[in-house]
Design a protein that fits this description.
This protein is mainly β and 125 residues long. The chain is 0% helix and 43% strand.
Amino acid sequence: MSHLPGRHQMELHLTFCQGVMTGEGRDRIGSFLIRGRYQVEDGQCWWTKRYIGKHDVSYRGYNEGKGIWGLWEIPPSWKGGFHIWPEAMGDPTQQKLAEGVEMETEAEDDMAVEAGAQVDEHAAA
């Protein structure tokens, strides 16, 4: 088993019922099943992600209202942080425009710009 450093996206479906957390999903390693527990009183939760036919990953975290934050571990030596959140919340790791402001601008000569290209207003003509 090789460890892939960095952030990893996953598709994850979880169910929370009477203190039991279950689910399933997939990521770049493969398909997996989730089984664990949670406490409504303090937001604490812990579970095991079991890759089908492969290894297990232990998770421990807290629900603080914007998803679950915590630590994962593959004993004896691999561990790191994680954050999972409801799909409806959108990806909180992506920067978003918090407020837009309209500004009046003067009309200039038309200039063609390729999509995705940056325009330097101080470039020589």
